[in-house]
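Subject: Sanity check before I submit

Could someone independently write out the structure tokens for this chain? I want to compare against mine line by line before I put it in a report. The sequence has 281 residues.
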Amino acid sequence: MRLLEPILRHIETRETIIAVWDYPGEDPPIFFCHCAGLCGRAWDPVLRRLALNNRFLVWDARGHGDSGAPDYPGAYAWDGFSKDLLDVMDAYGLKKGVLAVGHSGGASAIVHAELQDPGRFSRVVLIDAIIAPPSFYPTAERLAVMTRKRRHVLPSLEAARARFSAKAPMNRWHPEVLEAYLTHGFSRDEAGRLHLKCRGENEAQVYACGGMVPLYERLHEVQTPALVITGEESYMLEHARAQSRLLQQADLVELPQTGHFIPQEQPDVCAERISGWFNPA
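---
Independent answer below. Compare away.
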């Protein structure tokens, strides 16, 4: 496995400050966008397994990890994330032909950024992107309600590990991913208590804002070659199949015995598929 130690950089965008984890490697870089509620460093187990020598740029999305958290109505719709993404890539001089990987809402942000600036991406991996017909989004309100009730403070690392290891969906996560989340998704106080970096209200707003910006209706406009990955047990399975049909250039992969949290459940398989897409034999 590749041993990686990133440099944390902070990039000022039009609306906030975005934390970017910069992993050394060769050009061209590959940009990674995580799902709602997690943070960039949750990608570490996948990054270690990639058979690629590229530089990796991995953000904490707005309201997550070590990034700023804008607070206005609609701040966590896809256009807020895509503005940040375009601004961060501009700061790195990545104007065209960017390689990117996104999971869930992170994949949606990549698609919206491409719609805003066609040709910004040259090749992408979309892992269970939250892109579906308008009738899908009201079903996410249940997730928003549950997320607002989430505990934000846990008494210790041991207590947090025990809690999440026994609770769906994290009880299906690879142990390395859970450790990465516990290490980087929480801050610690002097008493050793863990404080969640992504506030439940911010994550809930991601779900509540999901249908505000049309993506499904415009998916046919995206010309970028895309690898669409879903899990056979994911609630997004049928929507991922539709995405692969609507995109102009797409390959579809359906992973058995896998739900929506594909990088968290299957980092080995995920890394293999990403490596093959960016460095085909």
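---
OP: Matches mine. For the report I'm noting this point. The longest strand covers residues 26-33.
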